[in-house]
């Protein structure tokens, strides 16, 4: 591996923790600034990816195209989610949400696009794993994701569009007053969120097992993905009433972009596999 490839790989691995630290730690910054930095980051990530996937022109490419395309589709979500570093987390007040309604709708639209990209990435991985005679875990993983993604898309649409319009109505009501339909709807979408988060983590676990069984992931890295995704799954189903620090950990594990970190890291690892 060349110096450029090694530097690019390190940069790709640092993207999710850097985005999370900036998004939660600093919060929203000027829109022109964070959009400019977002475009720069996409360019840097693209350059890093190119360094990892480029091959001499005399080598056949057909054998690894499926792995490369699957890896790219798993990486794309966090290329898009990197915008959240400057956008910060969603407002905690209804008035703040309404004041930034366009940004919130953009946030959840990006999450929807990322979820679809991740789904297609795992679909390609399933095909490649089936070609290597691994069918059980990849099929179970893709089945779990097939159930999860409609819930994920419904949940993101609810937060980005339905709830935004509902909040515009709420600010016209007396302080603290909510329509009778709101608490049941909120509970309903909380349950949907728990289900889709758990299933996305389960998908990661099952695909990590499949990749480990076909020797695409080493035993050590495979166990790491499985353990981390299992922790995310357990935290994701904990109720908000859990004592600290479990309540905060559960909240973080269920933030919509977070369950896609492990698939992103698998995608980066597959770029290295493609290079070998």
Structure description:
The protein is an all-alpha fold and 276 residues long. Helix content is 78%, strand content 0%. α1 packs antiparallel against α2, α7 runs antiparallel to α8 (182-213) and α9 (219-236) crosses α10.
In short:
78% of the residues lie in helices and 0% in strands. With 276 residues, it is an all-alpha fold.
Terminal CA distance = 9 Å
> Main beta sheet, described?
none
Approximate helicity band:
over 70%
Tell how many strands the DSSP assignment holds: 0
By DSSP (H or I, 4+ residues per run), the number of helices equals 11
What proportion of the residues form beta strands (DSSP E)? Answer: under 5%
**Helix and strand pattern:** HHHHHHHHHHH
Mean of pLDDT: 92
Outline the low-pLDDT stretches: none
Envelope shape:
globular
Task: Label the structural class.
Answer: mainly alpha
CA-based gyration radius: 20 Å
Annotate the secondary structure layout.
Elements: H1 3-25, H2 31-53, H3 62-81, H4 84-87, H5 94-99, H6 101-131, H7 136-170, H8 182-213, H9 219-236, H10 246-254, H11 261-275
Helix pairs in contact: 1-2, 3-6, 3-11, 6-7, 7-8, 8-9, 9-10
Characteristic terms for this protein:
mainly alpha; 78% helix; 11 helices; globular
């Amino acid at each position: 591996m060349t110096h450029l490839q090694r530097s690019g790989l390190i940069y790709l691995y640092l993207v999710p923790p850097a985005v999370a630290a900036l998004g939660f730690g600093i919060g929203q910054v000027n829109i022109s600034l964070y959009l400019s930095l977002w475009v720069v980051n996409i360019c840097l990530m693209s350059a890093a990816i190119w360094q990892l996937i480029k091959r001499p022109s005399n080598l056949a490419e057909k054998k690894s195209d499926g792995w490369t395309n699957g890896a790219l589709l798993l990486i794309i979500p966090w290329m898009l989610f990197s915008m959240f570093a400057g956008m910060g987390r969603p407002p905690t007040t209804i008035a703040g949400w309404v004041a930034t309604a366009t940004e919130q709708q953009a946030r959840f639209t990006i999450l929807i696009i990322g979820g679809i990209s991740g789904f297609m990435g795992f679909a390609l991985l399933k095909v490649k794993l089936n070609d290597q005679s691994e069918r059980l875990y990849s099929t179970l993983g893709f089945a779990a994701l097939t159930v999860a993604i409609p819930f994920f898309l419904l949940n993101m649409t609810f937060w980005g569009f339905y709830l935004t319009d509902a909040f515009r109505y709420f600010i016209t009501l007396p302080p603290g007053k909510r329509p009778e339909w709101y608490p049941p709807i909120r509970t309903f979408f909380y349950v949907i969120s728990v289900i889709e988060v758990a299933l996305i983590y389960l998908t990661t676990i099952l695909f990590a097992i499949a990749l480990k069984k076909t020797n695409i992931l080493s035993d050590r890295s495979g166990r790491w993905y499985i353990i981390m995704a299992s922790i995310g799954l357990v935290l994701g189903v904990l109720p908000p009433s859990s004592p600290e620090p479990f309540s905060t950990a559960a909240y973080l594990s269920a933030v919509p972009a977070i369950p896609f970190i492990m698939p992103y890291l698998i995608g980066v690892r597959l770029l290295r596999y493609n290079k070998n």
